[in-house]
Request: fold
Amino acid sequence: MEEKIMSKINIDIKPVRDIVSKSGDDQDSSLIAILQETQDEYGYLPKPVLKEISRLKDIPLTRIFGVVTFYSQFTLIPRGKHAIKICSGTACHVKGADDVKQKVKEQLNVVEGETTADYQFTLETAACIGTCFLAPVMMVDDRYFGKLTAGRVTDIVDRYSSKV
Ligand code: FES
Reply:
């Protein structure tokens, strides 16, 4: 069978087959774990991949979509390689988070919720991310950056840009 399924872009189906083959036989308990691992692999949940999970696990596609749309951790939209999450909680707001956010938006040419054209960054905002003493704060992937200024945030994003 073809390893690539055509859509707007070529999606390699082999990784999801490997993920499903490692999962147990229990449909219900393994579906969320499969979806999490699949999203980690692809960066989002492409439709052809969900169809393949449906076929392999014999779970109706509508039920899979129900799970994906119920949990906010899942996304059907392609995301960037790096997730930038800028805190918009009160402490960060008071310490200038809006300026930081504006700088990142200008630098990446995206608005909140968007992914850059090269799929390197997705920009998000979040309510308090729990490190108010470092306000204003942002996360890039799993890493925290605090006491940000417009100048410092530019350097941080540049560093991640050069890693791509
Ligand atoms: S308000 Fe930003 S980390 Fe708490």
The longest strand covers residues 82-87. The CA atoms of residues 4 and 12 lie 5 Å apart.
